[in-house]
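Escalation from tier 1.

The customer reports that the assembly of four entities below gives different C-alpha cells on two consecutive runs. Tier 1 could not reproduce it. I'm attaching the input and our single run for tier 2 to review.
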Amino acid sequence: MIFFRNDYGEGCVDSIMQLLIKSNEESHPGYGCDEYSKRAAEIIQSKLPDTPSDIHFIVSGTLANLTMIRHCLRPYEVVLAADTAHIVVHEAGAIEAIGHKVFTIPNSNGKITPSSLERAYLRIIEDTTIFQVPRLVYISNSTELGTVYTRNELEKLSEICKKFDMYLMMDGARLGPALMSGVDYSLNDIARWCDIFDIGGTKNGGLFGEAIVITNPDLKPYFRYVQKQSGAIMAKGWLIALQFIGLFENDDFYKCAKHANELAKQIQDSAIELGYPMYMRSTTNQIFIVLNQIQYKYLKERIDFEIWGTWGNDTVIRLCTSWHTSQEEVDYLKVYMKEAMDQYVLSVQTEEEKEVSSEEKE
Amino acid sequence: MIFFRNDYGEGCVDSIMQLLIKSNEESHPGYGCDEYSKRAAEIIQSKLPDTPSDIHFIVSGTLANLTMIRHCLRPYEVVLAADTAHIVVHEAGAIEAIGHKVFTIPNSNGKITPSSLERAYLRIIEDTTIFQVPRLVYISNSTELGTVYTRNELEKLSEICKKFDMYLMMDGARLGPALMSGVDYSLNDIARWCDIFDIGGTKNGGLFGEAIVITNPDLKPYFRYVQKQSGAIMAKGWLIALQFIGLFENDDFYKCAKHANELAKQIQDSAIELGYPMYMRSTTNQIFIVLNQIQYKYLKERIDFEIWGTWGNDTVIRLCTSWHTSQEEVDYLKVYMKEAMDQYVLSVQTEEEKEVSSEEKE
Amino acid sequence: MIFFRNDYGEGCVDSIMQLLIKSNEESHPGYGCDEYSKRAAEIIQSKLPDTPSDIHFIVSGTLANLTMIRHCLRPYEVVLAADTAHIVVHEAGAIEAIGHKVFTIPNSNGKITPSSLERAYLRIIEDTTIFQVPRLVYISNSTELGTVYTRNELEKLSEICKKFDMYLMMDGARLGPALMSGVDYSLNDIARWCDIFDIGGTKNGGLFGEAIVITNPDLKPYFRYVQKQSGAIMAKGWLIALQFIGLFENDDFYKCAKHANELAKQIQDSAIELGYPMYMRSTTNQIFIVLNQIQYKYLKERIDFEIWGTWGNDTVIRLCTSWHTSQEEVDYLKVYMKEAMDQYVLSVQTEEEKEVSSEEKE
Amino acid sequence: MIFFRNDYGEGCVDSIMQLLIKSNEESHPGYGCDEYSKRAAEIIQSKLPDTPSDIHFIVSGTLANLTMIRHCLRPYEVVLAADTAHIVVHEAGAIEAIGHKVFTIPNSNGKITPSSLERAYLRIIEDTTIFQVPRLVYISNSTELGTVYTRNELEKLSEICKKFDMYLMMDGARLGPALMSGVDYSLNDIARWCDIFDIGGTKNGGLFGEAIVITNPDLKPYFRYVQKQSGAIMAKGWLIALQFIGLFENDDFYKCAKHANELAKQIQDSAIELGYPMYMRSTTNQIFIVLNQIQYKYLKERIDFEIWGTWGNDTVIRLCTSWHTSQEEVDYLKVYMKEAMDQYVLSVQTEEEKEVSSEEKE
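Tier 1 run:
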C-alpha cells in the first residue's frame, strides 16, 4: 500500500528533528514564555514586514480555530463560512460548543466569492428577526478542496470585511501549498488582508502546531487568556516554536509545500491524461478524482487514500501528497492508475463484445 | 541559575526520543487510529489487570481536564474539588467555560478528606434551592501541594462516590511521583477506585501527553466525540502514544518519578535540618519552603524557582525536581540553602550585636 | 389599520383574565410549587390518558426551546430541524449558545419528510469524520409556514426516531391551530409520538406560557434543574398555570384555534378567488400571500401585516388571525384585498391602453 | 397559616391589574416594540435625570442576571460577588452555564466592602497564573440578608470599579425596599454609580418583571440581541412594561416598599423585645430570626415562613413582608411570637423545677 491518505501521516522534516534533539535537555520556562517561542515569533514576524503582529502557538487545528473564534466574538456575533469549511463539516460542532452559530455560504469550488459574502451579510443584517451580527468571515486557504484564493479575491473579501466591520480570518492549515501554488501574493500580503490567521505546521513538515498571527490591534489583548481557558497553551511550549523555527529558518516551509504541489500536479495531470474525471481541479497538494467501481476496487488494494464522497454510482477519492511523498511513490501511483483505467476499458469492451455476440446469436 | 522551577522544563527521556526518531518517517493513519496508539493503550491496560478500560491520549493537562469533565457531566451537574485544585486556581475558568460550576471544599494539605466530601455533598443535596447535582469529585494525586492520598483515603473517597452516585476523577498530572512516594497501592488500584483518571506524561519524562483512562462503562461511549469537539485529538496522534510507550515499556515512568522524589527528599531533609520552616511536608517532587527576605534575596539570584505565595512577610517558594534534575544540581542547591541560612543568621547576630552595643552605649 | 400582524398582539381570553383577577390576592408558594400549577398539570395530563407525563410551565417560546434542548442533549449530540424551523431562523442562535449544532434539513412546505429525516440521519452517522450524534428531531406543528403534519407523517417520524434512538420534540407554539385544522389526531396521540413537546399558550389565547410535556421517562428527571439554570422558572409560577387552566378547563384552547383557523380560511379562500398567488397553502391561522408592488402599496396602508420575504419583484406577506380577530376585521380585509386587486387590474389595463394608443399613433 | 414566606406570594397591586384589564384587547406589535414599553422606559428614565439610559424589560430575575452578565463579559472575564450573592447560591449555576466564573468575596452582612473588593481584584490581577480578568462586580441592594448599602459604600465601590475598569452591576430585585429603608440616595444616584442595574417588579407589587437600566454607553449596543438569544424577550412585551407603568406612575413602587419595610420593622422590633436572637439586623422587608426547637415547632404550625439555615441546634428563619402583608397579619404574628417565647420560658422553668425536685429527692 502506498500512502496518499493525507498530509499528516509522517513525523517532521529533518531540520525540526535536529532542533528537538539539540534542545532536548535544555531548561526552559513553561507555557510559551521561553526563548524559542520568542525567536519563532520573530522569524515569522520577519515575513510580515508591513504588519506588526502578535504571534502565538497552538498545538493543533481545531483547537486553534475554536480559540481564535472564541477570542474574536461576542455572544451574539456569528461566523460566515463556506458550506465546505473545515469548521462546518470536520470539527464536531466545536464552534457551536463555544456558543457561536456558523452561517454557511454555498461554496464556489471550496471558496467564498466576494459577491456571495456580501449577499450573506446583507441577508442577515436586513432581516430584523435574526438578531445576530455577522462579525467573522472564515476562509481556508488552500481550501478543503485544494483550491486557492486569488489575490483579487482576497483583496475584495478584505475590503468587504472592512466595509462591514467584520474580521477576516484565514485558516492556514494548508497555507504553505497555497502560497506555492503560483499565486502572486505572500505571507506579508495575507497579514495585510486578514485580521487573524494561522500558519499550519502539522500538514506541511512539522510534527504539529499552528502559528496564530493577530494583525488587528483590537484583537491583540488577552489572547493568551482565551488560549489558557481553552486548554490551548502547552506546558512545554517551546516544542511548537521549534517546529516553526525549523520550517522558516531555512525555508523548509516553502520547500515542503513546493515539493508536495509538484508531485500532486503530476498525479492530476496523469489522471486527466488517462481520462479520469476530476471532482475538482486543484493547484495544491490535494487531488480529487472520480473512480468508477472497477477502478475503485483496483486502486483501493494498492493505494491508501481517503474516500471523499460519492458521485452517482462513482466514488470520489482524495489523494494527498506531502513533504514526505517520493517521486517513486508517485510513479507507482501513475502505473496503478493506468492499470485501473485499462481494467475498466477492458471490461467495457468485454461487455460490448458479449452484447454483440448475443445480438449475433439472435 | 540552577533550574528547580518546575518539572516540565526539559524535553523527554531518551527512550522516547529514540522512538520519535525511529518512527519519524513511517506512515500512519491520523487522529489516534494508528498502531502506536493501540500499543500504548495495551501497555497501559496491562498495568490495570482488574479493570477493562478505554484509554485515550490528550496532549496537555487543562485540555484533558476540560474534556473529561465535559464528557462526564450534564448541564446541571457540578464538580466538587479542593480549593487548591488545579481546575480551581490554575485553569483560567476552563471548567466554567464549558458550563459547569465547581463547588470548592476547604483543602486539608491539598487533599479532600472523606468527611469533608460527605459534608459538601449533603450540603448541596439538602438545600432545595440550589438545584445542582454534585456528580464528579475531582482530586489530584499527587496534589498541587506535593502531598499524596493514602490507600485508606482513596478507598473511602471511592466508597462515598459510589454511595452517592458520583464519579471519582483523579488528575494524575503527577501520578508518577505519587505512586513512587512509598504508598501501598498501584495503578491497578487506582483503576478500581476511580471512574476516570489520567496519567501524566508531561511532568514525568515525556514531551507532553496525558493518558485518559476510563474505567466506568457508562463513561466509555462517545468520549472521542467530546475529545474532537474540544479540539483534543491530535492529527499525528501517535506522537502522544510514543510518549507512553517510552514511559511504560521499560518502566521509565516509575524510574523518573523515583529519581525526582529521591532528590526532592534530599532537598526537604536538608532544608529542615538547616532550620527552614516548611510550608507543607511533601513526599513527592514538589518542595515548599518558607524564606525570609534575606534568604529569598540570596537564593533567587542562584536558583530558578517558583514563588508560591507569601506568608506574613516571608515568601513561600516551590522547588521542583524532575527526571532531569541531577545530584550535582541538588548538591549545589544544598550549598546555596546553607549559605542563605548562614547569611540570615549572621544578619540576626549583627543586628543583635548592634542592639547590644547600642544598649551598652545607653 | 386593521391588525393581522401576528397572533400575539393582544392579551388573553376572558376566562384567563377572570382567573387572574380572582386569584390575585391569594398567597402561594413560589417557583411553580403551588396548587394552580398542580391543577393545570392535571388538566393537561387528562388530555393525554395514554401517556403519564411530567408537565412544567415556561413563560415563553425561545426559553422553552432552549431549556428543552439543553435538557435532552449531551455536548456531542445535535438537533435535526427543517431549514425553516423557528430555532434555525428566529431564535438568535439560542441553541448554538447552549452549545449545540443544528443540522438543517431542506423543508418540504415547512415540514421534515420521513425520508429526508432518514437521509439526514444516515448522512451524519455514516461520515466518520463528523463525530456528532443526531439525537433530537425538532418539528414545529403547525409549522412556521402554517402547514400541519399529517397523522401518517407523525407516525413515520416517530418510528424513525425510535429506530435510530432519537428524541422527537414538537414545538407546539401553534399546536392549537394544528389540532383544529381538520387532522385526525389529538393531544393524546402527540404524547404517544413525541418524547417531549410543548403546548403554546401565548399565540392561542393566553398572555404567555408554554406547557412542557415530557413523556419519555428518561427525560423526566432533573428537568426543573435545567429550567432553573436557564432562568426559566418564574417566581410567581402560578400565573403561567392560570393560562392553561383558563385555556383547557372550558376548551378555550380549541375554541380560540378553531375561530382563528376559520377566519384564516376565509382570507385564503378569498385571496385565491381574487387571483392572488399563494406562497404556501395553509390550513391554519397563518396565510402567506404574494403581492405585487401596486397591491402591496395599497394594502400596507390599510392593514398591519408582516413582511415574510420577497419573491422576484413581489412581496410575500403573512396575514395572521387569532382568537381576537373579528369577522368584521376579516370582512374589511376582504374588501381591501379586492380593491388592491382592482387597482392592479386597472393599472394593467391603463398600461395596455397606453400601449395600444401609442401603437395606433405610430 | 399566615403567609410570611416570601415577597412574591401574591399577584399585583391594583394599579397594574387595572392596566392589564384596560389594555387586554388592544393590539400591539410584539417583542417589546410597543407603546407601553416605550412609555414605561420614559417613566423610569424620568427618575434618572442625570443619566441617559437604555431601558429594557425582562420577565424574571435569574433570566435578567444571566442576560446582563452574558452581555457585559468576554469569555475570560469574571464576576466578583459576595459569597451570599443570589447568583452564587440561588441560581443553579446559571452564570457558569453561560461560561463565566464567579469569584466570591466573603460577605460582610451580605455586602461587599470596598476594601475587600480592592483586595479581591488585586489578588486575581497580581497572580500571573490565573489568566482571568475581573470585569464585573455584582452587588444586590437590598442584599439577600435584608441589609442595605450606604451612600458612602456605593460611592466607594463605584470609584474602585472605575479605577480598575470594572463594571458595577446592581441586582435590584429588592431595590424598592432598599430605597425606602432610610438611605440618602435615590434611583438617580444609583444610575450614576452603576454601569448596569435592574429594578425589580416581581417582589415589590408587580406580577413579574425586571427593568434593566444600562447607563454605560459601551454596554448599550446589542443588548436586545443577547436578550433574544437568552430567550429573554417576551412576545407580549407590553405586559412587563405595564407592571412598571403601574408601579411608577403613582409611586406604588415606593409605597409598596415603604409599607413592607414598616411592617417588617414592627416584626423585628417585637422579636428583639421578646428576646429572640436576630441572625441579622435588617432595615428592609426580610427579617431573620433564630428560633430554638420549642419556638420553631410552635411557630411553624401557625406561620408560613422560610427556613434559612441552622445555627448550632437552632433554626434561622426568614419572615418576609410585602405590599400585600396586612397589619392584622403582623399583629397575629406578634402574638404567636410571644406565645412561642412563653412556651419556651415555661419549658425551661419546668425543666428547672424537675431538676430541683429531682435534686431534692436525692
